[in-house]
Amino acid sequence: MHKSSSLLRQIPKVDELISHASLAGFASGAALTKTVRGVLDELRHDIRAGFVDALPCRDALAKTVANRVIGLQKPNLQRVINGTGIILHTNLGRAPLAEEALNAVYDAARDFSNLEYCIKKGERSSRHAHVEDLLTELTGADAAMVVNNNAAAVLLALSAIGQKDVIVSRGELVEIGGSFRVPDVLTQSGSRLVEVGTTNKTHASDYERAIESGSTGALLRVHTSNFIMSGFVAKPSLRELGDIAKKNSIPLIEDLGSGCIVNLANYGIYNQPVVSDSVKSGVDIVTFSGDKLLGGPQAGIIAGQATWIAKMKAHPLARAMRIDKLCLAALEATLRLYLTPETVVEKIPMLRMLCEPQDSLFNKAQILKQQLDASESGEITVITESSLAGGGAMPEENIASAAIAINAGISAQALERHFRMGPVPIIGRISRDRFILDVRTIGVEDFPYIAARLHEVKV
Ligand SMILES: *Cc1c(COP(=O)(O)O)cnc(C)c1O
User: Fold this and answer.
1) Which of 166, 234, 415, 426 satisfies CB 3.0 to 4.6 Å to 81 for a cystine?
2) Closest Cα to atom 13 of ligand 1
3) Which of 180, 288, 323 to mutate to test the pocket of ligand 1 (most atoms within 8 A of CB)?
4) What CATH code would you report for 99-347?
5) Measuring from atom 8 of ligand 1, which residue has the nearest CA?
6) Is the model's pTM score more than 0.85?
7) Number of DSSP helices (H) and strands (E) in the chain, helices first
8) Ligand 1 mean position, distance from CA 235 (Å)
C-alpha cells in the first residue's frame, strides 16, 4: 500500500508529459491531451491494482502516447484480403463494387449532382427516379424505390400496410442475423403478427382460414435465407399465395433477402429465387438487398405495384431510411450493367467470383502455390474446398472451390495471426490444424503480397 501511494505521487503531470521533447512533433490539442490523460489513468489503475513495481520512465510514457496518437491517425476502416471463400461476408463488407460503380461513386461524391433535380424540367425531382426505370425493366414490376438496406425495406413495406394483421407461416419466423427477426420487425411496423401453419408444414388453406375481412392487411412470405428445412416440409407456391391475396384484395409481400436479378443456372448456380419470377407469380411488393447477390452497394430495393410504392414513398419513415447519394450512384451503375446480360457476370465482381468454375480455381490455386513455394518459407498444398455465397444466400449450396493449406513450422493459430496482423490483413481460416486460404475470393494481384508475408514468418 505504502509503495503504491509513493508510485502514484511520482506520476508526471499531464502538462509535463505533453511538453516532453518526443511529442513536440504532434499538434497539441484536445486529442493529444486526451491520449496523455488516458495513458496516465491506465498507469494509475495498474499501480492501484498492484501490477506496477517501478514507474516507467518519462521517455517510455511519451513513446506510448506517440504510438497511440499515430494509431489514431491511421485509417481504421481498411482494405483486407478475403481468403475465407465467403463472398458476401457481412464482417468483410459484403459485395465489392464493379469498376463502373466505383467511378459513379467518385463522380457523385466529388461534385454537385442532379440527385433530386430534373434537368429536363429544371425543377425538383425524386432521388428514386435515377433507378426506378432500371428496376422496373429488370424486375418486371410496375414501380420501384430504394432505401438504405433490406431491413429498412421490409420495415417500410410492413409499415405501409397500416397497422393491420399480417399473416406469416410459422416456418418463416426466422432470425436473419444482426438481430433482424421477422416477428420483431413486424411488431415494430405496428402490424399484428398472425402465425399460421406449423414449423415444417404450412398449407394454402392455413392462410385462407386466417384471413378476416377488414382486419387482415397482408400476407408475408419470407425467404428463410441462412436457414434450411428439409424432409417432411411443405409450403404453398408463390402463385397460390398470390391468388389468395388477390381474391381477398390484400397485398402479398415477399422479403426475398438476396434477390437475384438474373438466373444463374447457366453458371451452375441453381435454386436462387429471381426477382422477376416473384413479380410474375403475383407478389405485390418484393424487397431485396443491394449488396447480396445483386453485387452492388448497401441498399434495400422495393419493387411492386405502383399504388403500394407510392404509399411507401410518401410514408414518414421513407425519409428516415433514404438511400444516400453515394450508394445511389453505385446502385444505378450496377443495375445498368444488368442491361447487358452477356457481360454482367464478368463485370460484377460478386458474380464473377460466384460463377468461377472449380477447374479455373484449381489453376489459380496452383499459381498461388508456385509463388508461395518460391518464397521457400513453408509447405504449400492445393486442396479442394467448398465456398459459400454468404449473406444468407444459398446456405444449402456449398460451391466447389480450391484453396491452399500452408504449413510454415509454427502453429496454425500463430500463422493465422501473422497473416491477419500484416499491413494489409489477410483473413483466412483454420481447418484441421492447417491455415487455409480459399482462392475464390482472392485476386491474383494480391498473390505477391501473400508470398511476401509468408516469407516474413519467423519460426
Ligand atoms: C439479409 C436479409 C435481410 C436483411 O437485409 P440487409 O440488406 O442486410 O438489411 C432481410 N431479410 C432477409 C430474408 C435477408 O436474407
Assistant:
1) 426
2) 257
3) 180
4) 3.40.640.10
5) 150
6) yes
7) 19, 16
8) 21
Return the ligand 1 atom nearest residue 90 CA.
Answer: 8
DSSP string over 366-392: HHHHHHHHHTTSSEEEEEEEEEEEETT
Long-range contacts of 206-211 (CB under 8 A, 24+ apart): 206/169, 207/167, 207/169, 207/236, 207/241, 207/244, 208/244, 210/165, 210/167, 211/167, 211/244, 211/248, 211/250
Residues of the chain with CATH 3.40.640.10: 99-347
Atom of ligand 1 at shortest distance to CA of 291? 7
Determine the distance separating the centroid of ligand 1 and the alpha carbon of 140, expressed in angstroms.
Answer: 21
Q: In tens digits, what is the pLDDT along the chain, a chain of 459 residues?
A: 567 889 999 999 999 999 998 888 887 788 889 999 999 999 999 999 888 889 999 999 999 998 888 887 788 899 999 999 999 999 999 999 999 999 999 999 999 999 999 999 999 999 999 999 999 999 999 999 999 999 999 999 999 999 999 999 999 999 987 788 999 999 999 999 999 999 999 999 999 999 999 999 999 999 987 777 888 999 999 999 999 999 999 999 999 998 899 998 888 787 788 999 999 999 999 999 999 999 999 999 999 999 999 999 999 999 999 999 999 999 999 999 999 999 999 999 999 999 999 999 999 999 999 999 998 888 999 999 887 777 666 665 678 899 999 999 999 999 999 999 999 999 999 998 999 999 999 999 999 999 999 999 988
Rounded to the nearest angstrom, the distance between the alpha carbon of 290 and the centre of ligand 1 is: 10
In this structure, what C-alpha cell is assigned to residue 108?
457523385
C-alpha cell at 39: 495513458
Are 302 and 158 spatial neighbours (Cβ–Cβ below 8 Å)? no
Question: pLDDT tens digits for 381-392?
Answer: 999 988 777 766
Beta strand pairing status for 300-304 and 252-257? unpaired
Judge whether 354 and 346 are in contact, CB under 8 Å.
Answer: no
Residue 256 Cα: closest atom of ligand 1: 13
Residue 118: strand pairing partners? 123
Cα 371 to middle of ligand 1, angstroms: 39
- pLDDT tens by residue, 16-50: 999 998 888 887 788 889 999 999 999 999 999 88
Question: Which residue CA neighbors atom 11 of ligand 1 most closely?
Answer: 257
Every domain range in the chain assigned CATH 3.90.1150.180 = 81-89+353-455
The CATH class of 81-89+353-455 is: alpha beta
Q: Whose CA is nearest to atom 12 of ligand 1?
A: 257
Pocket (CB within 6 angstroms of ligand 1) = 149-151, 154, 176, 180, 222-223, 225, 255, 257-258, 289, 300, 392
Rounded to the nearest whole angstrom, what is the distance from the C-alpha of residue 88 to the centroid of ligand 1? 12
CA–centroid distance, residue 93 to ligand 1 (Å): 14
